[in-house]
Here is the input.
Amino acid sequence: PSSESSSQVKPAAANEKQPGSENIIVTSQDGITKIMFNRPSKKNAITTSMYKEIIHALKAASTDNSAITVFTGNGDYYSSGNDLTNFTDVSPNSIEETAKNASILLREFVDAFIDFPKPLVAVINGPAVGIVVTLLGLFDAVYASDKATFHTPFSELGQSPEGCASYTFPKIMGPAKAAEMLIFGKKLTAGEACAQGLVTEVFPESTFQKEVWTRLKTYAKLPTNSLRISKELIRSNEKEKLHAVNAEECTVLQGRWLSEECMNALMNFMSRKSKL
Amino acid sequence: PSSESSSQVKPAAANEKQPGSENIIVTSQDGITKIMFNRPSKKNAITTSMYKEIIHALKAASTDNSAITVFTGNGDYYSSGNDLTNFTDVSPNSIEETAKNASILLREFVDAFIDFPKPLVAVINGPAVGIVVTLLGLFDAVYASDKATFHTPFSELGQSPEGCASYTFPKIMGPAKAAEMLIFGKKLTAGEACAQGLVTEVFPESTFQKEVWTRLKTYAKLPTNSLRISKELIRSNEKEKLHAVNAEECTVLQGRWLSEECMNALMNFMSRKSKL
Amino acid sequence: PSSESSSQVKPAAANEKQPGSENIIVTSQDGITKIMFNRPSKKNAITTSMYKEIIHALKAASTDNSAITVFTGNGDYYSSGNDLTNFTDVSPNSIEETAKNASILLREFVDAFIDFPKPLVAVINGPAVGIVVTLLGLFDAVYASDKATFHTPFSELGQSPEGCASYTFPKIMGPAKAAEMLIFGKKLTAGEACAQGLVTEVFPESTFQKEVWTRLKTYAKLPTNSLRISKELIRSNEKEKLHAVNAEECTVLQGRWLSEECMNALMNFMSRKSKL
Here is the structure.
């Protein structure tokens, strides 16, 4: 729909950067606040500053007058997840400090999703990798284009699951499917992710944007307080558990980042990538 | 099967009303106690007195000599859920008292399902709406005709989930599918409900009654104590949690019933209905 | 692959019995420790001594240098579960003592799966019955041949679920599908078990061994510590609950074994079997 297309290039009113140059674009209309990854040349990989901007955007969306908040990506990717240069731009004598700070930021970032008080929807326009996949267990609806894929290659990188996926994925799909993703790094198609409950519904790429936004605009007209209260009622059943899981995952991951196994895996990955 | 057909018009022995005129018909044979919604002219909508009769029927079935208890509906609908005239037949100066009493009754009603000690089966003969859908998360088997549908339009009516669905549905189908039903009011076909784990198996309408009752009669011949003990073992893992969820849902819903949002939504609904 | 085929007839180095005559064969290569049920003439039914050998094998695999541990069966069956002669070879005046010891052994056996610290995979080569099915809820990946089936006929034998299935199965597949298996004894095909999340993936029998072992060898090359740490992170979310469920299930089952209902069911079963 034209109103959506145009909003994708308009900056948020409060944003003082040059129009369209922001890595995260926040817009709000038709009762929907949209938070868009906008770093298409880097497959929407998430930098340290983008983590902070998203936390800020979620806090703002909590209290704005929208009914629903939606995450999506600009370009071919939904998001390739954590930008690995977050790890490599570190001087050797500050590694421990950097790992500690990254762990604290990750925990705050995931907490912002756990505590978000309104229905949260993901519109997955393309491949999703890592943290943006694990977070889906905290969303209330996930709509995917049939060209989307879902990949969490933690072990390959010497790391471990985050985003509460160590708890939400086994709950959603059972341990036998969750572990193949989270431990062995199996990549899922959109159809597989839907069959396993991670995705609400899959649409053909050709009609994806039109069908999803039409549906979301209808949903956003439902009584706002009921939407919020039902969402909070569902979340209240496990909010405490989710915070505990998040804390534990971030502690474990901080240890992983400092391990030789992880450093070697990251160096191998970067080295392979630079040769392409 | 003929024995089942005939039981559908026979009153329970203890029932003193005119045969066939009861809104809830309870019969027992072949080791199966059947509790049937019998208000087909009103789509088996549940009145305040029917809630009480069902609580009574469940208490009685707990200690009768049947192995299994089955819920089903007479006519085209399984049940359209709560009869909304339960809300409209209220004088304005007793609204708070009525909401409080309705909340207490709902909590007692759902508790009767949580605490039921024998295998509990739903035979879904047609559309199911609201409370009769949310309760399915507390059943041990759910067989559906392919003309059944599953609909929980809580937000549209300014309300919020009950029957422990805010806990059981995300557990059964994952949050991304559960929220679309419970928050956004998506109606599911029988096939969709089966794929998402809410329904055990779907049968063609033409053979539905025959196949399901044949299977249930076989199941009812299994060692009775093992059936009961296995059911209680499974339930014991979350009985305390279910009671807490039920209490919280009823408290939240009582608040919803007194909200302007809910009253407006109900008035709009009634007004649209009366114009049909 | 030929290396796997040959390992199936080679005894573990430490084993002093005649080569190939052991009921449990443990081998380790390519980063994979394989524990194989090897009693094909008895459908790999598990005797009391086999329970003890498996506990021992799991303890050893916990600390060997393998990355992954795999269970599979030799011959047509994965395993027919508990060998019922464990019950019948008991003198009448020691029934209570035998039931108590069996309950203690079962609890220790299941605890060994709950506490196992590395990714645990089942390669289901054929029919699986009883305890080897319920345990699958504790595995990290379950690959099945399309000729595998999954059957837990507890009620028919006057018994009740074990292996934490009273907790894991409703969590994996929802109560409406779990109870049909655990309470009513419905047998599932491999495809059904996969659709319900108990099985990770189903393969045609003709390519099953080749495809699965190729995949597992790839997985076993992933960073070993990450595999272990991710597995333990996932398990830590419910380890305490699983131990409590196991204890309760074993207590309930001990009571069942001493019940008239169970003894009659076992006598009927043995009598039918001896007439075949």
